[in-house]
Amino acid sequence: MDGQTRYRRWYRRLLGLYPRPYRERFADSMEQTFTDLCRERAGTEGRGHGAFILWIFTETFAGIIRERATDLARWTMARKATNVFRIVKYLALAIGGLLVAGIATVMVLARGTGEDITGVVAPALLLTLLSVVAAAVAAILQGASDRRRHSAGDDLAG
Amino acid sequence: MASTRTDGPLTPAVLHILLVLSTQERHGYGIMKQVESDSEGKVRMGPGTLYGSIRRMTEAGLIRESDKKIDPNLDDERRVYYGITALGQQTLAAELQRYRQVVAVAHERSLIPKAMGA
């Protein structure tokens, strides 16, 4: 096995350390570029060639760390968003529950008195409906954010 | 969202890639060699910097992937080519305008050595 083939094999292994989506998109092109660079330098084997290969490997390794850090930051942001949506969902459900309890209490207290409670109950029902809608939207967004987080987690693992 | 900002100063790598792609589409190795040539060897980009920048720039909408084509000057392998977008052209123009203003201020204050300014 000649030097070029060996370096190319090592470089392919190094590219395996990139996050999966990045690797799937750019690894072939990067390997092709590496081969081009090696071909260009083929005539200088022994004269700074080792240093050049070392520079490419170091530079690519720095790129791997950058991409991993970016993925980690995205994953952290997605996790924060998931928590915010979860809080909004439970808050909306709690408000909706309190409103239902309030409406029931007013209806019980007003029973038999003949008092018109429509002016109180109607806005409360509207608010309850809005709370339920808010909880549903927050649940959907939480699910989407969770999926993104898992996908980012897979990238971190990949 | 991409981390490449399009409203402020660009990194040297992003600026050089936009400059190279402003005239024609190129593949990764072609970009690398042209950047080296444009900067008279002062800017050297390895594959890690180049493709990291390409990822951020495509996400920011500054450049786009073109079809895979064969470079007749290299080999018969098909390569991904990249081209500049309208947003990329605007961003490059804004950055060059910023440079022009900086140079104008430097001229006003006689900060540019005569040999360079001539």
From TrEMBL, chain A:
The chain crosses the membrane at residues 87-109, 121-141. Keywords: Membrane, Transmembrane, Transmembrane helix. This is DUF2975 domain-containing protein. It comes from Micromonospora arborensis.
TrEMBL record, chain B:
Residues 17-93 form the Transcription regulator PadR N-terminal domain. It comes from the Bacteria. Coiled coil: none annotated. Pfam families: PadR. InterPro entries: Metal_resp_DNA-bind_regulator, Tscrpt_reg_PadR_N, WH-like_DNA-bd_sf, WH_DNA-bd_sf. This is PadR family transcriptional regulator. It comes from Micromonospora arborensis.
